[in-house]
Specification:
By secondary structure, the protein is α/β, with parallel strands linked by helices. 45% of the residues lie in helices and 9% in strands. Helix 5 links the parallel strand 4 and strand 5. It starts with 24 loop residues before the first strand and ends with a helix. Keywords: Purine metabolism. Belongs to the polysaccharide deacetylase family.
């Protein structure tokens, strides 16, 4: 099994964004322009729109226009847009427009205002409709048509993409279309990242549905502008503090003309804009500027190999000796579920360790017996594996005095006679003195206690070996 979801991401130590000017946070405003691109039988759709409007319990009306819903979308174009346009132009803050292609074609004055303000206009798809049930062929055609109409409307091909009501195939299909500096149809991180599809890296700039004004019209959302301001402020304060501590992040804010463009809601947004302008080291870019910055600061670097994507033979060749002379553990791990979380040292050790723990006591005992004696005959004859040779040398076990060698030999003999396998310890965690001390302590354990202790040390050795070859 290969589990495709990436639950690891940047991990516990994300890259330093290194935002311009040493900014502690990048705050990015997105204005979704959907008015005129929503579901409507006038647009050839089967029913009226019912999504993200101030009609409680709205539902699509098959073969009918919904006058109230239409007028709410029209409010966004007629009034809400201009209120937001004034806010951001007067504050001299850049905005990224997510423009639905068919909506842009019905908004010549608004489009001119966006361009006069120097705002980035990214593609928000061909129409503001649901894509989850579209076939890949139909969605591919709509992506191409969105690009074509966008270019006609704006004079330039879009460099950013966000579908929103996307399908499982959307990100792959947009990646295949090519030519995009970024895609934003994910919500999975506070930083951009590279996603590889069919061998080609695509930059992903995650978006947000939490710091999004859509929550004014969804369950468990914002009741008023003050609640919206407080949520944005708390989000900003958290991210700003993380940036001050050395881990700068990105804050996306999603807006809609017909939602936060309403006066009572708008005041919360304005209050937030005023709030962040009181801080130093805040970068307010477009998404395209973020993409360009990230591509320069953190260009894609192809790994030498990706464990979860290796063929079985290569996987076993690389990792079959991680558990000493026990390639069957790697074989079983490859045959099990592997995912991006298993492509790090900790993640792959977890997959291998799981198979070791699932094994029978007899199988695990065989793994213990496969380990060499510390400073034993194999070491003297230089017949250890490369990993064992390096490990024993790291603790000075390859340069013992005669007295030390005699002591190790005696302990090894007594230990094996008692437990039936050699003494095992992660020597990279220890010194010669601490190894001898552990040897003398553990030799007094019961058989069950020492079997458990030895298995734990085998797992620790596996992790240390993997850390030498994986991030």
């Amino acid at each position: 099994m290969r589990y495709p979801r990436d639950m690891h991401g940047h991990g516990p130590t994300p890259p330093n964004a290194n935002w311009p000017g040493g900014a502690h946070v990048a705050v990015q405003f997105v204005l979704n322009y959907e008015e005129g691109g929503e579901n409507n039988i006038l647009h050839g759709d089967a029913a009226s729109e019912a999504f993200l409007v101030d009609v409680v319990g709205a539902a699509p009306w098959p073969d009918k226009r919904h006058w109230n819903v239409e007028s709410m979308y029209e409010y966004g174009a007629r009034a809400g847009f201009w209120r937001l346009h004034r806010l951001f132009t007067e504050a001299a803050l850049p905005v990224t427009i997510y423009g639905v292609a068919t909506a842009l074609m019905r908004a010549p004055t608004q489009l001119a205002a966006m361009q006069d303000a120097g705002w980035e206009i990214a593609s928000h798809g061909y129409k503001w409709v649901e894509h989850k049930d579209m076939t890949p062929e139909v969605e591919r055609q709509q992506i191409a048509e969105a690009i074509r109409l966008h270019t006609i409307a704006t004079g330039e091909r879009p460099l950013g993409w966000y579908t929103g009501r996307c399908s499982l195939n959307t990100v792959d299909l947009v990646s295949e279309a090519g030519g995009f500096a970024y895609i934003s149809d994910t919500y999975d991180d506070d930083l951009p990242y590279w996603r590889v599809h069919q061998g080609n890296p695509q930059l992903i700039i995650p978006y947000t549905l939490s710091a999004n004004d859509m929550r004014f019209v969804t369950a468990s959302g914002f009741d008023n502008g003050e609640e919206y301001f407080q949520f944005l402020k708390d989000s900003f304060d958290c991210l700003y503090a993380e940036g001050q501590a050395g881990s700068p992040k990105m804050m996306s804010i999603g807006l809609h003309c017909r939602l936060v463009g309403q006066p009572g809601r708008f005041q919360g947004l304005k209050k937030f804009v005023d709030y962040i302008k009181s801080f130093d080291k805040v970068w307010v870019p477009t998404r395209l500027e973020i993409a360009q910055h990230w591509a320069k600061e953190h260009p894609y670097q192809a790994p030498e190999f990706i464990p979860s994507q290796l063929p079985k033979a290569e996987f076993v060749e690389k990792f079959g000796s991680i558990f000493e002379h026990s390639p069957w553990i790697a074989e079983r791990a490859w045959e099990g579920e592997l995912a991006p979380v298993n492509d790090t040292a900790i993640g792959l050790q977890f997959a291998l360790r799981t198979q070791f723990r699932l094994a029978t006591d007899e199988e695990r005992l065989a793994v213990l017996r496969a380990h060499p004696d510390l400073a034993g005959k194999l070491a003297a004859a230089k017949r250890l594996t490369a990993a064992s040779t390096e490990e024993q040398a790291s603790a000075g076990l390859d340069a013992l005095t005669d007295a030390e060698r005699e002591k190790f030999t005696a302990l090894n003999k007594t230990y094996v006679e008692k437990f039936g396998f050699p003494f095992i310890i992660a020597v990279k965690d220890n010194t010669k003195a601490s190894i001898l001390a552990a040897f003398e302590t553990r030799i007094t354990n019961s058989a069950a206690e020492e079997f458990k202790a030895a298995c734990a040390q085998v797992e620790r050795i596996a992790l240390l070996r993997l850390k030498a070859i994986l991030p």
